[in-house]
């Protein structure tokens, strides 16, 4: 007996899985030998729910694809329901790459060419700081053994906990603002446009994920960050001063992240040998859905977009627990971010099913292409 | 065994009258309920609903047309769709040469549609009754399951189960009232709404949208009267937001789910498209 995907809405993360002892492969056997179990799963929690077989079949009347087959047209069999759910969940995450979809036939808003090295767009002192941090990170060697994701991630995180990353956290905020100001100057579709508010939110997250000592240093960093942002935007933040910080922003930052902030923010290091990904959210989608993302990295700096994402998520929660005083433990933010990444990155559950990796990459290809997304 | 050939030759009004006549005892309540139900359906209206997830709805809101499976790509191997089972059902329903130009929905008096197929229920405007449209009084894949698959004359079965927009009040009356026991009660509009589309049991709508000169078919946002959501999803969304505000880092899937919903909500607001949270019996969200 094996599990099969009977019908599957890949981008929506909804699927009907069946448990039976045969593959259909063209034979019209549905009414001769119905499956033992029909299970429905959907996001956000993918909890198995029993469903009717006719309901599973009729799903293909809507937007669900019938079955999941390999390149020879053979149904892909899964040993366990957990494997089916893992594939459905990861494909759902992969479909999120690219952020807001484009309407049929219309290309997605043109992305500015991502800066391979944002130091090119920074002012002298910031460029120097960024360049120095980047040089130090580039010298960090990645481990060659990458089959054990948890162990590999631990190695990356050990490097991430080094002084070099602490410097980079400062620098990445500089780089984000520099790149964002370039993008803000370009007309984009309203839904995908980077908002000034987004940059402010990220600046707040960037400050929290940084090493700073005491209220005054953090406050000064916020002021200088927002001043630079204000200068880039002809002064709105510089004139109005920093927003009430940090308590009034706590819920706002969580809500900003939950409304797709990471999908709107450009990645300061968009280049990755694995594929071209322009936004932080694209990197998060690829890293959490495809095992090849981490394995294909050739230098530590390529891990920075996904590390930045996890630190930002952890930093948003950190604000909640602080009373506004000068003391807080930045290492706690990193620990929480590491725990989150360890939990969310793909494990080896689907290793025995090569077609699963193929499927994930198909979804990522469609989701990040300018036209393929409309056929998902 | 039911005489399908006999049923296929009768109108739904005749079949409703036959069914009432076959009921034992005093039929006064039954007849009163039929009168009331016909009035409600005429007054409040039944609608064709289509369920879609956030991904599909967002694209619709951005100007895309609703797509069926024939217009979407496959993930995995590219085995030629559709399956023999779908071809069999499509032929029974009379789709020629295939179901590519047919779009499926369900009939609803209230509620949020068949949520297995998507968390958002798109209520189509009444204009759909002027489109080429037909209905089956159940999921058409039931035709491949016992006992319907064992009926000697599949054509008569399909003919007996098919219905039209004009006959829907009688179809709904039989569906609802045959499920209500004891019969000596007056039905309410909430009960009618609940029984018309209950869990996985629905009246299937088939909308024929042939390809237009510009290559598009199906329907767009202009044909959507309102978007409905079930309280479960809205509560889930709010619960996740509360958890995040209280210091819990959401999972990647939770973050993605909330993010898509937030984008959809912004778009719904910007289009001023009515969007409501309704319970399964439709209370709190009548059409008029």
Q: Helical residue percent of chain B?
A: 25-40%
Q: Assess the beta-strand content of chain A as a share of residues.
A: 5-15%
What characteristic shape of chain A results from the CA principal axes? elongated
The average pLDDT score of chain A comes to 76
Helix content bin of chain A: 40-55%
What is the N-to-C order of secondary-structure elements of chain B (H for helix, E for strand)? HHHEHHEEEHEHHEEHHE
User: In what order do the strands lie side by side in the largest sheet of chain A?
Assistant: 4-3-2-1-5
E-strand count of chain A? 5
Give the overall shape of chain B.
Answer: globular
Detailed description of the structure:
- The complex is a heterodimer of chains A (376) and B (288).
- Chain A has 376 residues and is of the alpha+beta class.
- Helix content of chain A is 49%, strand content 6%.
- A 5-stranded antiparallel beta sheet of chain A has the order 4-3-2-1-5.
- In chain A, α2 runs parallel beside α15, α3 (124-139) crosses α5 and α11 (280-289) packs across α13.
- Chain A is elongated and about 70 Å long.
- With 288 residues, chain B is α+β, with helices and mostly antiparallel strands.
- Chain B has 10 helices and 8 strands.
- Chain B has helices at 4-8, 12-22, 28-43, 54-61, 84-93, 154-161, 168-177, 189-196, 231-245, 252-271, and strands spanning 47-52, 102-108, 120-124, 133-136, 162-163, 204-208, 224-229, 275-277.
- Chain B has an 8-stranded mixed beta sheet with strand order 5-4-6-2-1-3-7-8.
- In chain B, α2 packs parallel to α7 (168-177) and α3 crosses α7.
- The N and C termini of chain B lie far apart (42 Å).
List the helices and strands and how they pair.
The complex is a heterodimer of chains A (376) and B (288).
Chain A: E1 2-9, E2 14-20, E3 37-41, E4 49-50, H1 53-58, E5 65-66, H2 81-95, H3 124-139, H4 149-160, H5 163-184, H6 196-208, H7 214-232, H8 236-240, H9 250-258, H10 261-264, H11 280-289, H12 292-295, H13 304-321, H14 330-344, H15 354-368
Helix pairs in contact in A: 2-11, 2-15, 3-5, 5-6, 5-7, 6-7, 6-13, 9-13, 11-13, 13-14
Chain B: H1 4-8, H2 12-22, H3 28-43, E1 47-52, H4 54-61, H5 84-93, E2 102-108, E3 120-124, E4 133-136, H6 154-161, E5 162-163, H7 168-177, H8 189-196, E6 204-208, E7 224-229, H9 231-245, H10 252-271, E8 275-277
Parallel strand pairs in B: 7-8
Antiparallel strand pairs in B: 1-2, 1-3, 2-6, 3-7, 4-5, 4-6
């Amino acid at each position: 007996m094996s599990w099969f995907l009977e019908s599957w809405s890949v981008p929506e993360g909804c699927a009907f899985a069946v448990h039976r002892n045969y593959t259909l492969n063209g034979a019209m056997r549905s009414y001769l030998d119905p499956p033992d179990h029909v299970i429905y799963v959907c996001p956000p929690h993918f909890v198995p729910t029993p469903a009717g077989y006719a309901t599973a079949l009729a799903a293909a009347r809507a937007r669900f694809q019938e079955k999941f087959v390999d390149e020879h047209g053979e149904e892909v069999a899964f040993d366990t329901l957990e494997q089916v759910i893992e594939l459905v969940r990861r494909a759902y995450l992969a479909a999120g790459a690219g952020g807001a979809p484009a309407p049929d036939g219309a290309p997605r808003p043109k992305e500015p060419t991502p800066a391979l090295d944002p130091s090119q767009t920074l002012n002298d002192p910031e460029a120097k700081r960024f360049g120095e941090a980047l040089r130090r990170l580039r010298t960090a060697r990645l481990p060659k053994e990458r089959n054990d994701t948890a162990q590999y991630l631990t190695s990356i995180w050990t490097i991430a906990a080094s002084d070099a990353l602490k410097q980079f956290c400062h620098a990445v905020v500089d780089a984000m603002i520099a790149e964002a100001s370039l993008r803000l100057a370009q007309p984009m579709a309203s839904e995908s446009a980077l908002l000034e508010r987004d940059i402010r939110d990220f600046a707040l997250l960037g400050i929290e994920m940084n090493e700073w000592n005491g209220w005054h240093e953090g406050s000064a960093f916020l002021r200088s960050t927002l001043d630079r942002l204000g200068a880039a935007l002809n002064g709105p933040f510089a004139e109005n001063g920093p927003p009430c910080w940090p308590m009034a922003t706590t819920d706002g930052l969580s809500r900003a992240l939950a409304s797709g902030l990471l999908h709107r923010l450009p990645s300061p290091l968009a280049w990755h040998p694995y594929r071209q990904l322009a936004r932080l959210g694209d990197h998060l989608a690829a890293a959490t859905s495809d095992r090849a993302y981490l394995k294909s990295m050739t230098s530590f700096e390529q891990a920075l977009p996904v590390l930045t994402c996890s630190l930002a998520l952890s930093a948003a929660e950190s604000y909640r627990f602080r009373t506004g005083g000068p003391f807080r433990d930045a290492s706690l933010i990193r620990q929480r971010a590491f725990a989150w990444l360890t939990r969310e990155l793909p494990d080896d559950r689907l290793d025995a099913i090569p077609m699963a990796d193929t499927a994930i990459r198909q979804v990522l290809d469609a989701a990040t292409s300018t036209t393929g997304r409309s056929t998902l | 065994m039911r005489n399908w050939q006999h049923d296929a030759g009768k109108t739904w009004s005749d079949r409703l009258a036959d069914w009432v006549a076959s009921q034992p005892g005093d039929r006064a309540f039954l007849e009163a309920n039929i009168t009331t139900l016909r009035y409600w359906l005429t007054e409040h209206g039944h609608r064709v609903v289509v369920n879609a997830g956030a991904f599909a709805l967002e694209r619709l809101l951005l100007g895309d047309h609703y797509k069926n499976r024939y217009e979407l790509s496959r993930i995995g191997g590219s085995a030629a769709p559709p399956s023999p089972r779908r071809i069999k059902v499509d032929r029974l329903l009379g789709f020629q040469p295939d179901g590519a130009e047919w779009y499926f929905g369900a009939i609803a008096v209230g509620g949020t549609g068949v949520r297995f197929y998507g968390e958002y229920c798109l209520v189509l405007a009444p204009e759909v009754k002027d489109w080429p449209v037909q209905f089956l009084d159940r999921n058409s894949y039931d035709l491949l399951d016992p006992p319907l698959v064992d009926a000697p004359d599949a054509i008569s079965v399909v003919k007996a189960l098919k219905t039209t927009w004009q006959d829907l009040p009688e179809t709904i009356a039989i569906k609802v009232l045959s499920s209500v026991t004891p019969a000596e009660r007056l039905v309410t509009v909430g009960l009618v709404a609940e029984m018309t589309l209950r869990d996985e049991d629905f009246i299937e709508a088939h909308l024929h949208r042939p390809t237009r000169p510009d290559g598009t078919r199906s329907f767009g946002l202009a044909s959507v009267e309102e978007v409905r959501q079930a309280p479960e999803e809205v509560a889930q969304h709010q619960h996740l937001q509360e958890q995040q505000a209280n210091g819990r880092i959401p999972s990647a899937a939770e973050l993605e789910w909330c993010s898509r919903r937030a984008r959809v909500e912004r778009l719904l607001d910007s289009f001023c498209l009515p969007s409501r949270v309704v319970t399964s019996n439709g209370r709190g969200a009548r059409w008029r």
